Amino acid sequence: MDAALGQALLVRARNAIAEALGAPCAPEPDHPALHRRGATFVTLTRHGELRGCIGTLEARRDLDADVRANAEAAAFRDPRFQALSKPELAQTRVEVSLLSAPVPMEFTSEAELLAQLRPGVDGLILEGYGRRGTFLPQVWETLPTPRRFLAHLKEKAGFPQDFWSPDIKVYRYEVEKWKEPPMPQDQPLH
User: Fold this and answer.
1) Are residue 7 and residue 93 in the same domain, yes or no?
2) Global pTM?
């Protein structure tokens, strides 16, 4: 993993949110990869709990623009959460995932698909019938078995957990990820 790229992405993600809130921004280190097309997800956590997660599945713009747009979207437009407030920013940790290009998976049954999954490695995109959902590889931490991972991904895409159709498509991708260091108050509140 490229630590310098990770730091450049993390600073840009935090700065995009800070700028939108009228908070101070940090100096941004440059990196040549920032000017190449790339797809990122920005995940925000507060007290160890998810606070927003938005991203891009396919590289359509340069990494600099992509990470900034996804950071703002995760902070202010994730429909699961209210917009992040300025007082919350200092307690919010940023994680940036850089996605590889999605690769279509070949399978003839759900059992065959499950057998191909690599826990902790694969991010998945499931699509069919006008619906689509994705889980980053980090989701394996809470859904560690292929069957549970896939069942919850189906649900996220709007299907029942036991849904199956030979017409669905599944793509796999990997990520490089970087996360801001935890703070003492990052422990869950329960």
Assistant:
1) yes
2) 0.91
